[in-house]
Design a protein that fits this description.
257 residues; 12 helices
């Protein structure tokens, strides 16, 4: 909770400083006058907060690989949402790729010996965030600033209620600067994501989303020594075979055009 609260506070500070230096605060003020826009980004903020809490919990509890699985599931939700709500179509080979990847994800269930609820929570919350942001009239900077502004009071209240002796912030300079640095580590990928989600199809966005969890997978396995049994390794292999198939079909379609 403390880590997530700090992410919100310092991310907002970074975004406000940037918008102020560029004279773009008028858009935020204008957005606050639209109940529909505020509600849209309140829902987006709720999805994002849920995602952060689950992700941080998984990381702190040695479940980095399960977190990676969540972000592997996430692209399929984008593909599904794109088909249902945006009418995005898929070729036969793309459907084969989706089926192969789905088989890879299914192998994870026996690999973790149960329902990977953290992975499912991460996938659903971030897919919801992406769908909401695609419908938003605000740009990446303005939208994320509004979302952090909505969550800021809750984060600040929580941080004020923490016993100073139980808080990591201020306990030592290393912990303090790491918490402050979450602003850049949080805002940078989210700003690129919010910009990209408006420029490309949800299906292509979904495929690109496989890059992040692969890095997360390697960190959990090679850096933090989380177990990688054969079944789990086979699962991730199938997922990447599916990614390669999907990318090839996209390139082939582009060449035909």
């Amino acid at each position: 909770m403390e880590t997530t609260a700090h992410r919100m506070v310092w991310t907002l500070a970074l975004l406000v400083a940037f918008l102020s230096c560029n004279g773009r605060t008028d858009k935020i003020i204008g957005a606050l006058q639209s109940p529909h826009t505020v509600l849209t980004h309140a829902l987006a903020a709720l999805c994002l907060t849920s995602n952060w809490l689950i992700y941080v919990w998984a990381t702190f509890n040695d479940r980095i690989l399960e977190g990676a699985l969540g972000y592997y599931i996430n692209p399929f939700l984008y593909i599904l949402l794109g088909s249902i709500f945006l009418g995005e179509k898929h070729s036969r080979m793309q459907m084969v790729a989706i089926a192969v990847a789905a088989a890879g994800v299914a192998l994870q269930f026996p690999a973790v010996k149960g329902i990977p609820w953290a992975a499912l929570g991460l996938a659903i919350s971030f897919a919801g965030y992406g769908m909401i942001r695609k419908k938003s009239p605000l740009g990446s900077f303005d939208g994320l600033t509004l979302e952090m502004g909505i969550m800021f009071p809750f984060a600040l209240i929580y941080l004020c209620l923490i016993n100073p002796h139980d808080s990591a912030f201020g306990s030592n300079s290393n912990a303090t600067w790491l918490l402050v640095a979450t602003a850049a580590a949080t805002a940078t990928p989210l700003l690129f994501f919010a910009r990209g989600v408006k420029s490309i199809s949800l299906s292509l966005l979904g495929i690109l989303q496989f890059i992040g969890p692969t890095g997360q997978l390697l960190i959990g396995w090679l850096v933090y020594n989380e177990p990688m049994p054969l079944l789990r390794l086979l699962s991730f292999t199938l997922i990447w075979v599916a990614v390669i198939i999907y990318i090839i079909t996209i390139k082939h379609h582009a060449l035909k055009k």
